[in-house]
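Step 1: inspect the first sequence and its C-alpha cells.
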Amino acid sequence: MLRPLLTVAFIFTTVVLAQQPQNFYPQPRINSVFPAGAKTGTTIEVLVRGTDLEDCTSLHFSHAGIKGELVPPPPEPPEDPKKKAPPKKKAPPPAEVKFKVAVAANVPPGAYDLRVVNKWGVSNSRLFIVGDKNEVEEKEPNNDVDQAQTIEIGTVINGIIANSVDVDYSSITGKAGQRIIIQCAASSIDSKLNPLIEVFSSDGKRLTNARNYQDTDALADITLPTDGKYLIRLTQFAHQFGNTDYYYRLTVSSAPWIDAVFPPAIEPGKPTSVTVYGRNLPGGKVVPQMEVDGRPVESVTVNVTPPIQKGQIEYRRRVDPPTALQDSFEFRLPGSNAVPVYLASGPVTSEPAGDNDRPETASPIKAPCEVAGMIEKRYDRDWYSFTAKKDETYTIELFADRYGSIIDSFLTIRNAQNKQDLANEGTLDDDNEPLHPISFFSRNADPVSYRFKAPVDGTYQVMVGSRASNVNYGPRSGYLLRITPAKPDFRAVVMPRSRDLPAVVTVRPVGEMAFDVFVERFDGFTSPLAITVEGLPKGLTATPSSIGTNQKWGTLVISSAGSLSDAHAPLIVKVTGQIDGKPLTRMARPASIVWGINSNQNIPTIARLDQELLIATRGDKSPFRIKPDLGAATVKVNGKDEKCNIPLIAKPGDKIAIPVKVLWQEKDARPNPVNIFMEQAQQNQQQAPVNVNNGQATAVAKDKNDATITLDVRNNATPGNYSIPLRAETTIKFDRDPEGKNKKDITVYAFAPPFEVKVLPTTLGKLTAQPTGNVKAGTMGEISVRIDRQYDFDGPFTVTFTLPKDTKGIQIQNGTIPAGASEMKFKITAAADAKIGGLNNIEVLAVAKWDGQFEIKHETKFNINVTK
C-alpha cells in the first residue's frame, strides 16, 4: 500500500525539522498539543509546544464551543535586595505555552483545528479531538510491567513516547469473551509516532500485536480468553525516535468500531441502505468467511441520507491529499469511531452476487453505470461485461485509494470477442501527477482514468484487481467503478503560499501576501477559472484572479493599502468556471502543511485539509512592494516595439516586455538585490504556455528600482486566458526585539496582484475544400468544405470564395458552417458558356470569432474541372 509507506518515510525524514532555522519573519508554529483532546463538557489544561510562541493571547478553535484561555507562567521569585542582581538577559522565546481549554457539552465528538494566536499572527493547526469517553494522562514511570498504569475499559490515555527507548505500559481487567478494541491515534492527530501495540496476558504470554491499521494509526482487536488482568505495551515501532512530537491517544474500549461502509459511495440526496462492517456493532452479526486483519467481522444494515451535495465535504477527521479531492461526509454509530462515506456522481449498483473471478463468468452490467465492488478474498479479481455501439464513448475510472481503500488497484479493459486488451495495468497505472509535488502531494494508487471509445458494436470487459490482494482483502477493500459519459468538473484546494513550512498568511500594512490555489480537473475540463474571496478583514482587498486554460495552479493575492489592526478571520475562497455554457462554483478546500521540510529538498511535505482558512493582520509596514506597469508594455511586431493593448492580448510566439517598479516603504532601505519571478502555474514552469524570462529570475540591483520582465508566449501555447502573478524576494536585517541590536538577515517577499493575458489562437481548425465531382457547363455542382475543429471551439465559420481574376460563367454560393458542425456543401453554378477545362487556385476563406470578438482566419485553395 503506497500511502502508509510514504507517510512513514516522510515522518522519519522530518524528524529533525521541528525547529526550522529562523530566516523569515517570526510566525507562531505548533509542533505538538498535549493532551491532544478532551471529553465533551470538561475543562483541561493543554500544553502547546512549538516556535515563536511569545506573547500568546488565546487559542483559536474551528468550533465556537471550544475556548482556550492563556495560563500565565508563574511569576519570577522576588529579588533579594541584599544581593547584587546580575544583569538581566533577554529570555529566549518560550518553546511551550499552557492554556485552559473548556469544551462545551454541546460540542459533537470529532476532530477540530486548534491554533495559537499571538503578537506574530496565527499558527498552523493541530487536530484536537473531542470524545465521549473518560480521559487520563499517562503517569510516569510506566516503563515496565510492575509500573503499568491501571485504567478502566472505556478510557482514553493521552501520552508521549519521550525517547526512542520509551515504553508505556497500561493494564486493564476484563471478562472472558469480552471483545476489546485498542486504538492508538497517531498520524490521524498530526503526531509523528508510528506506534506498535502489544497485548499480554497476566502470565506474560503475548496475545496479539498491531500497527499501521490506517496510515500509522494502530488497532488491536482481542477477545479476552479468561477473566483477569491484561497488559498493553505501547512503543515507537523499532524504537527509532521519540520526543514530544511523538504524542498519542490510546483508546481502550468495548464500544462499536466501524471498519468500512459498503457501498463506499452513494448517490447525493438519496436515502440509501448501506452495510456497516466492524466489531462490537449494535445488532451486528458475524459475517461467515470474512475477516478484518485476521479477526471476525460483523455487519449491520442501516439507512443513510447524504447531508451534503456534490462538490462538498463534511468530515471532521484528518483528510490527507489523496482523499481530499473527493466529496464525503462523516458517518458513525452511537459511541463508535467516525468513517467517511463518499458521493458518487450518479446511481450506484453493487457488484452482483456470484463468481466473477474469470472473464468467462464476468458479471453483466449496463453502461452507463457506477458499480461498487470489493476485493473480498485472497487473490480476488472482479470481471464485468457491458455492451457498446461503435463510437460510443465513456470515461472508465476506478476509485479505491482515493476512498481510503487498502487495495493497490489496477484495471484491464478488453474486447470480449477477440480477447484483445484495449488497456491494461501497463497503461492504467497509478495516477502520478499530484496537485503539487511538494506542498500538496495528492498522488494516489488508483489507475488513471481511461477514455473508452468502442471500436465496433460488441461486448467489452473490465477487470478490477489489486496488486496487494494476497494480504489486503475484505471489507476495507471496497472500490467504485465508473463507466459513464465524460462529466467535466473540478475541485479546488487553497493553501498559504508556503512550499515547505506550516504557515498562515499574515498581511502587513501597505503590502501583499498570497495563497496558492490548486485545481484538479476531471474528464477533459480545460476552461479558465476565476478565483474570488469572501470574509476579508477590514483594510484588505483581493484582486480577482484566475487559473489559466488547462492549468492546475493559481495565485490569490491579498493587498493592504493602509494601517491595520491586529486581527484574524476565516476566509471563503470560491473558484468558478464555465461547463456547458453555465457557470459552476466550487468552494476551495482549505489545507496546510502539517510537518515541514528543509527548503529545496524536493521532498513532499505532509499536508492535510484544514477546517478553516485563516488570515491574520499584524506588524509594521511591509518592507517593499512591486508594481508592473502594464500601460508601458510593448511587443515586437516586424522587429519594432509596439504598445500593447490593455488587457494584454497576445498570439503564440509573442514576447511582451513589461516594466516593473520596486517600491520601498522607507527611503534608502534597499540593502540587497531584489529577484522577481513569475509564480509557477505548473510543475515545470519552463514548459508553461506563458512564462516570464523562461522561468528564471529577473534581478534588480540594490541601487536600482526598475526592471523589465519578458512575458514569453510559447509557439504551442493553447489559446485561452492566463493569469500572471509576480513574486519578488530579497533579504533585509531584522531583530524580533524592537530594542535589540542583534539583527539578522531574513527573507521577505512581495507579490503583485495578478494580471491577465489573453492568448489568441492562430487557427481554430484545419480547413479543406474540394468539389464532389466535375462541374458540367449549364448545371450546378457542390463544393465540400470541411473544418477539423481545434481547442473545443464549436462556433460558426463564415465561408467565402474568391475566384481567380477574369473567371467568367462560374459562381459559388458563400455561406456559414453552423455551430458544432464540421462540414458543409456549397453550391457552384457553371453557366452554359463557361470555359471548359480546369480552373485552379479558387480561394476559400473561413472566419470564426474566438471568445465572441476576435476574428481568426483560415485559408485554403482548390481546383475544379468544367466539362461539357
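Step 2: inspect the second sequence and its C-alpha cells, then contrast the two.
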Amino acid sequence: MKATTSLAPVTPQAAQCSHEPAQPLRQIKPRAYRRYQELPIFGSIVEDFARWCLGRGFSVKTISMQLDSLRRLVPWFRRRGKRSIKDVTADDIAEARSFYRRRKWWLAAGMRELGDLLRGQGRLKPGRPLAPPTRPEAELARYAAHLHKDCRLAESTIQRHCFCVRWFLKVLRANPGDAAFRELEIGQIDSFLRRVAHHYSRRTMPLVVGTLRKFLRFEFTQGVLREPLHLRLESVRIYREEQLPHPLPWSELQKLLRIMDRSTPQRLRDFTMLLLAASYGLRRSEVAALTLDHIDWRARILRLPQPKTGNVLTLPLTDEVANALVDYLQRGRPATTDRHLFFRGRPPAGPLGAKGLAKCLRRAVRATGVKIETTSFHALRHAFALRLLTEGTALKHISEVLGHRSFNTTSAYLRLDVEDLRQVALAVPKPVKIHRSAGPACGLACSGRRSRRSGPVTAPASKGFRSFLARPMREFLALHRALGRKYHGQEWVLRNLDFFLAQHHVTARFFTAGMFEGWVADQAAVSPTVRSHWMRFVRKFCLYLARTVPKTFIPDPRTFPKEQPYQAPCLISERDVARLLAATHRPKPLRTPEHPLRPKTMRIAVLLLYCCGLRRAELLGLRLKDIDTERHLLRIDQSKFNKTRLVPLSPTVSNELQRYLQLRRDYQTPMDPSAPLLWSGRPNRLAGALSPTGLRFNWQQICRYAGVLNHRGYPPRLHDLRHSFAIAVLQRTYDAGKDPQATLPRLARYLGHVAFQFTHHYLQFTEPLRHAADARFRRSFAHLFAAPVASKSTKGGAR
C-alpha cells in the first residue's frame, strides 16, 4: 500500500492545513459517504477518521479499505454490547486486532488506526482494571525501578533484563520472597543456563549471564537471598575479533553510487543516506538521528550525534555531500514541520528508524545489479575505514573520524585490508639441490628413535562416563560449553579421570585426596608442564563439584609440578626450507599407489606453514571452499580462540597452490567445496583429511632425508615453521631498510593476534637480526656520533 503523490502533509498536526479537503469522506466515497456517516457506533467519527488517515500519508485506496474495515466490524462490536463510540475501550481495540491479525489483516490494520485516532483525541477509555500483580510481577517492577533509577539504563535495556528475569523465574517455579527462592542453589542457575544456551548464540550468552548476575546481586543486597550467588556465576568465554567483518570493495561501492537511480523521492533518499554513510563511516543509528539542525551551512560542518556513545562528532561538509543534501531537500524530502532529515516512504508517515534504514543498501544492490557480497549497512563503515587506511591516513585520525575512544576498537575495522597484509606473505624459496652427506642424519636411519614419552597413559573410556562422577562431569561440560568454551581436550582429561575411577574406585561416593594422588601417579609418563595443566583443570572440576558436594577434595595448586620453561624453537632458514621442499619428492614412503599426490601434498603443506605462518590445526582444517583463487587468499575459520581471518598469499605461493589444485583435478581426487586441502588418499577416514599424526610422520621423514635437524639430532617441530616465518618477515624488513615498528601490526594481524605484543613470543633475537638491526642503527644515527672535522681556517686561527 503505497502513498500517492497527492497526499496531504505527513503529520497528523498538518492534517488541518488548507491543502486538505474539508470533507475527505465525500471525495473518498463519493457515492456511499452518507451510508458511512450513518454507520452504527462509528458514524460520528468516520469523517475524523478519514481526515486522520490522510494526515498519516495513506493513499485513497488504502483509506477506502480502512473505512470498509469499520463497516465490517460493526457486527463484531455490537455482539459485545457496544452501542456508541463512547463504549469502545482500549481492550476492545486490542481484542479486535488480536482476533483479526491472522484471519483478515486489513481489518486489524483499520483497528490500529482507529485506536491511534481515539487515543490522540483523548476519547479512548482505558480497559478493564488490571488484576493485582503477582509476586513475580511486583518484584520485576521493583527491579525495573532499580535499573532505571540507580543504574540509569535505557528503556530497551530494562525490557531485555526483565524478559530474561521473567523467564528465569518461570523456569525456577519460585517466587521472590518464598522459602524456596531464599534457599536458591547455584545448581539451579546452572541448569537454567544450560537450557537457555539452546536458544541463544555464544555472542548473546554474556548478556544473559550479566542480567542474572545483576538480578542476583539486587536480591542479595535487598536481603531476599541468603548467599551471594552472583559471585559464583561462571563467566562466558568470548574473544575479541572472533568474526570477520563483511568485505565491501570501495570500487564496487563507488560504482553502486554512480549508477543509482534518483528519479523518485524514495530512491533519492536512499542515495543520500548511502552517500552519507560511505563518506563519513556513519552507523545506521547516526544517519537515522540526523535532523536539519545538525547541518551548519555557513560553517560547512556536520554535527553528528552518536546514540551509541552519547558524543557529538563534528565533521566537515564536503561539496559532494552538500550537493546531495540540497538535491534531496528540494526534491525528495516531504513537506513537514518535523525537523528529522529522513522519513518513511510508506504510511504511516514519520521519521525513518534505524531498522528501516538498514534495508536501503539491499534495495540499491537489487536495483542496480552490482555484485556485492554483503548488504549489511555496517559494511559501509568498514569500507570507509579501509579506504582511509589505504590512502595512508594515520590510525589515530581514523579513530577520531569514526568516533572511537581506543585504537583497539578501530583495529577491528582494518582486518579486511588484504593488499596491505599481502606484503607480509613470504615467497617460495629458491630451489636448491640436496646432498645426502650435508646433514647430520640422512635417509631413514633415525626412523627408529623413540619419543620422549616412555610409558603408556591411562586410556579414557570410549563410550560415555562410567564412574560415580559421571553425571557431574556431563553437567560440568554442558555448562561450560553453554558459556562459550569448546572443551575438547578438557573432555579427554575428564574421561581419563573417569576411566581411572571406574577401574579402581567402583563403590566410592566422594572424591578424596587418595583418588587424586593415584590418578596423578598414573600420569607419570606425561611431561610436568602437561601434567600440571591437567591437574589444574581437574581442580577446576573439583571446585564445581564442591558447590553441591561439600566433602569433595580440592587439590592444592602449590603441590602441582613446576612447569618447564618453553622449549626454544628451532629456527629454519630459507635455504633449509628449500631443502625440505626438494626432499618432498625423494623419500619412498611418501609416494604410494593409493596416494600418488602425497609428495605434492606435503610440498604445499610445507609452503603454507612457512610462507603463511599457519598453525598445524589451521592447515589441516582448510577446505577447498576456503581458497579464493581470484583474490589469492585463504580464509581461516574458527581458528584458535574462535577467530576467523583472511590470509593473503604471495604470487609464487598462489601459483603453487593453483598447480596443486589442477593436479587434484587431473587425478580425479575429491574436489567438492567441503573436501580437505590436504587429502590423505583415504576417502573413508575423516572425509579424506590428513590426520595430525600422518602430517607429523611425513614431516619427520622429509626432515631426516633433507638433513634438517635440531641441535639434539631430532626433526624440528611443525610449529617451528611459524616461528621461522615471523623471523623471516622481520629480517626482510631490516634488509629493505624499513621501519620494523610499522611491520609489527601487520604481522600481528596476519598471524591472527589481537595486538602485536602477542607476536613478540615468535620474535627471537637471532644473530642475523642483530647484524641487521646494528646496520640499520648505523645508517640512521651514525652521523650523530661522528666527531666534527675542524676547518683549516679554524686550525690556523688557533695557532
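Step 3: confirm your contrast with the notes below.
The two ends are 103 Å apart (CA to CA). The chain is about 50% helix and 5% strand.
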